[in-house]
Design brief:
Pfam families: Glyoxalase. By secondary structure, the protein is an alpha+beta fold. The protein has two domains: about 55 residues, 2,3-Dihydroxybiphenyl 1,2-Dioxygenase, domain 1 (Roll); about 70 residues, 2,3-Dihydroxybiphenyl 1,2-Dioxygenase, domain 1 (Roll). The chain contains two helices and nine strands, in the order βαββββαββββ. The strands form two sheets. Strands 5, 6, 7, 8 and 9 form a five-stranded mixed beta sheet that branches. Strands 1-4-3-2 form a four-stranded mixed beta sheet, with helices on one face. Helix 1 runs antiparallel to helix 2. The radius of gyration is 17 Å and the shape is globular. The mean pLDDT is about 90.
């Protein structure tokens, strides 16, 4: 009998369908500091691989129309972790300058018996995103009473 031993499992990259890959490269580069690792510029095959420190994190595929839909199965939201609430708030400032749409004004505590919390917003295609820190969120300062744990509902 063979017993399989499974090693560490981590999430690889995330692939997102977008309507304008150049616009999304600018957005994700400005907000997250992603660099273009590779890019396809053929008219019918526009794509970009974005990452940091040589690691692929997000792949953009220009192959959709309209805006992100919460009415069909698929991605609920994409979340990125930073180290501190100060970093979350600094990212919120960048997003405001870009005119991003926020779900709530301010940090939303996760409410999982800890101090984690983040900001919830949409990219230019309406894809729901979160930036959070594992500590530093103050549940008393939630933007709305009973804010949902995940920030999107």
């Amino acid at each position: 009998m063979t017993v399989s031993s499974e090693g560490k499992l981590t999430t690889g990259h995330i692939g997102l369908n977008v309507t304008d890959v150049a616009r999304s490269i600018t957005f994700y580069g400005t907000v997250f500091g992603f660099e273009v690792m590779a890019e396809g510029k053929e008219d019918d095959r526009r794509w970009a691989f974005l990452g940091r420190d040589g690691q692929l994190l997000v792949a953009l595929w220009q192959q959709s129309e309209g805006t992100f839909s919460t009415n069909t199965p698929g991605l609920h939201h994409l979340s990125f972790q930073v180290e501190t609430i100060d970093e979350v708030n600094a990212k919120a400032d960048v997003l405001r300058e870009l005119g991003a749409e926020f779900t709530y004004d301010g940090v939303v505590p996760h409410g999982e018996n800890g101090e984690s919390g983040g900001i919830f917003f949409s990219d230019p295609d309406g894809i729901r995103l979160e930036i959070y820190a594992p500590t530093g969120a103050d549940p008393k300062k939630a933007p709305v009473a009973g804010a949902p744990t995940c920030g999107f509902f």
